[in-house]
Specification:
Elements: E1 2-7, H1 14-27, E2 31-34, H2 39-42, H3 52-63, E3 67-71, H4 79-84, H5 111-128, E4 134-138, H6 153-167, H7 170-177, H8 204-231, E5 238-239, E6 241-242, H9 251-255, E7 262-264, H10 274-288, E8 294-298, H11 317-327, E9 330-335, H12 361-374, E10 387-390, H13 393-399, H14 410-423, E11 429-431, E12 442-445, H15 453-464, E13 468-471, H16 494-497, E14 499-506, E15 520-524, E16 527-540, E17 544-548, E18 558-565, E19 568-573, E20 575-577, H17 579-593, E21 606-611, E22 614-619, E23 625-629, E24 641-645, E25 650-654
Parallel strand pairs: 1-2, 1-9, 2-3, 3-4, 4-5, 6-7, 7-8, 8-9, 10-11, 10-12, 12-13, 13-19
Antiparallel strand pairs: 14-16, 15-16, 16-20, 17-18, 18-19, 21-22, 22-25, 23-24
């Protein structure tokens, strides 16, 4: 179990480095990330490198038994680089340069940036590939965080090349994008530009492919640097810090290229449900590489500085959220950063060692957490979850594209389905529509608007072989090119659900007011469920109608159907339920699929999560709770036990 955080010794005198090492040992630090933003210090001019300070940093860490996750330093180009090569700067959709003065001010496809970054990484690994302090390599930093989409001429040239590789002929592209509409037909790939600001809606096919290209362009930077590190003979694992279900990059494809998945997570302490979003982010990371542990590369010990209101973490929250990540597969708990900066844009961002020093509450909690992590038992990576939730970046990009019938936040809606299971203490994995789903009794695929032929075949096989598949409105609308299949809606998965979708109707969005329908209600097992955003008009073919709408624009039409398909069942919800409705429907579907909670009788604010043979219980409520824990069925004669959990208190249980 690794423990530590980002370490930026270049901000401090060498006398401070000695104190840093002493306090790191006291806090139980085992790993620090070094050199994330040091390009201007290492390379003060093109062709000039100054390594001596970094040599001493690595030697200091190694002498004190602390490993180094050595970053490549490419996340923030130095001033001399942008002065000499201004063409590396990215541009927004209005063609405006994003100027130096902060970080990530580079076009991912700029030949000059890529050449100079490659030179830096080559020199770095030549010097440190076999250094005994280096236990991991860290490529760039939060790729795409500030510039997920670059619209510069660099991007234009690279996008045209990417499109030609994908479609081969301009005729195939014109067909995929339906460029006959609005006189957009191209005669060469060179005519195509990124979706810069246009007078009206840009072509949705172009927008979708540009987002795919942008994800690939960022991934290509990672692969470029990774391959340089590997070519040097370095054998340490290589990672880059992801950002939960970040909308700018398809992390399913990224995970295939990474040795170790790592995550940055900053839920808002002001949000009473933040622990659920933290759980979702952790489950995304575990899902990317289910057979390997992941690292929580960054989190805050206390407050951050970039929200309109930056609340501190109450005592115990940092420890509870850290253990939550461990229970969901993390084998490392790290923070940004070790020592709080005295100046600069992050001087109000908390750290392991805050401005108030080693006598502070934060440092006491940090040291206590370090001690707790040292005594954890050896654990595998399995969640043993019997429920999967599909998260699909193509769906995200397509459903949030231009000229849509209703505004939908794919990430938020999928996370709400996850939270509905979390409230019921049902373990869940985040999966792809292409994943092996055979171990799951129930799979939920919310807003599966875009369905490829491959995904449709995988989901159909899952149900045919005994799985229970639950989807919501606006499912199976378009194919991978963002085009309707012949026949309209639900053409790839219609047999699974046994219904035809004639049309949809949009509801007034929650909280917007105005005339029209705000909701459409129906009842399942005596529980009233409110639908939001939209409704689908269903016509049952082979499906059983479980519930009908009691109000709304299609009153009397099926709201929930169930269809036997092979050995399994497909469930179609003809709307998007509110939070309470999601909880009710999932309780109903889980029971039908034979899925139950990890433990029964727990309040919603007490979380239970499994990691192989171990359960973690955390009290996220504002008051202490007294729990009755059922006896372990695997241990004959053992009785139930009473457990007291304080606010943010947590405990591990061994439950094979």
């Amino acid at each position: 179990m690794q423990y530590g955080g980002d370490y930026n010794p270049e901000q401090w005198s060498e006398e401070t480095w000695v104190e840093d090492a002493r306090l790191m040992r006291e806090a139980g630090v085992t790993l620090v990330t070094v050199n994330v933003f040091s390009w201007s210090v290492i390379q003060p001019a093109e062709g000039v490198f100054e390594w001596e300070w970094l040599d001493r940093v690595l030697e200091n860490m190694h002498a004190n038994g602390i490993d180094v996750d050595l970053a490549t330093g490419t996340a923030s180009p130095p001033p001399w680089l942008t002065e000499q090569y201004p063409g590396v700067l990215p541009q927004d959709e209005n063609g405006v340069n994003l100027w130096p003065g902060s970080r990530q001010h580079y076009s991912p496809t700029s030949p000059d940036y890529r050449r100079l970054a490659a030179t830096l990484v080559s020199a770095l690994v030549e010097r440190y590939a076999r250094h005994p302090a280096v236990s991991m390599w860290h490529v760039n930093n939060e790729l795409g965080c500030h510039v997920a989409y670059d619209y510069s001429d660099n991007a234009r040239a690279a996008f045209a090349e990417w499109l030609e590789q994908k479609y081969t002929t301009i005729k195939a592209l014109n067909t995929a994008w339906n460029t006959a509409f609005w006189s957009q037909r191209y005669t060469s790939f060179a005519q195509i530009i990124p979706p810069r600001k246009t007078p009206s809606f840009p072509n949705p096919g172009l927008v979708l492919d540009f987002k795919r290209f942008s994800s690939d362009a960022l991934l290509d930077l990672f692969v470029m640097e990774r391959d340089i590190v590997r070519a040097s003979g370095a054998t340490q694992p290589i990672t880059t810090n992801l950002m939960g279900a970040f909308p700018g990059a398809d992390y399913w494809s990224w995970a295939e290229e990474m040795d170790v998945v790592s995550n940055d997570a900053y839920p808002d302490p002001n949000d009473p449900e933040a622990f659920r979003s933290m759980a979702f982010s952790s489950d995304v990371m575990r899902g990317l590489k289910p057979d390997r542990p992941w690292l929580l590369m960054e989190q805050a010990t206390n407050a951050v500085q970039w929200r309109p209101t930056n609340a501190r973490k109450q005592p115990g929250v940092m420890s509870a959220w850290s253990m939550q990540s461990v229970s969901r597969g993390a084998d490392g708990i790290l923070f940004f950063q070790w020592r709080q900066s005295r100046a600069g844009a992050e001087k109000f961002h908390s750290a392991m060692l805050p401005h108030s020093g080693e006598k502070s509450r934060v440092f006491r909690e940090i040291s206590a957490l370090g001690a707790d992590l040292k005594v954890l038992p050896q654990m595998g990576t399995g969640s043993r979850a019997r429920v999967g939730i599909v998260f699909d970046w193509d769906c995200l990009w397509a459903v949030e594209g231009p000229a849509m019938p209703v505004t939908l936040d794919y990430h938020a809606i999928v996370q709400r389905w996850h939270a509905a299971l979390h409230r019921q203490h049902i373990g869940v994995d985040i999966v792809s529509a292409r994943s092996d789903l055979s171990s799951y009794a129930l799979v939920i695929a919310p807003l599966l608007y875009l369905v490829t032929d491959e995904s449709a075949a995988n989901l159909s096989n899952y149900v045919e072989n005994g799985g229970h598949l639950l989807v919501s409105a606006f499912t199976d609308v378009v194919d991978e090119t963002n085009t309707f299949r012949a026949g309209g809606y639900l053409q790839a998965l219609g047999a699974v659900f046994g219904v035809a979708v004639e049309e949809y109707d949009a509801l007034v969005l929650p909280g917007t007011g105005g005339p029209g329908y705000r909701e459409a209600s129906f009842t399942v097992d005596g529980t009233s469920i409110r639908g939001e955003y939209m409704v689908d008009e269903l016509h049952p073919e082979t499906a059983e109608v479980v519930a009908v709408f009691s109000d709304g624009p299609i009153k009397g039409s099926p709201a929930l159907t169930a269809n036997g398909f092979g050995s399994g069942v497909g469930y179609y919800i003809a709307t998007i339920p509110d939070d309470a409705g999601m909880t009710s429907i999932l309780a109903w579907a889980a029971e039908r699929a034979g899925v139950g909670p990890e433990l029964t009788g727990l309040p919603e604010v007490v979380e239970v999560s499994r990691r192989d043979e171990h359960l973690l219980l955390i009290n996220h409520g504002s008051e202490a709770v007294s729990l009755i824990i059922p006896a372990d069925a695997s241990e004959a004669g053992k009785k139930e036990e009473r457990l007291e959990l304080s606010f943010q208190g947590w405990t591990w249980l061994h439950r094979p």
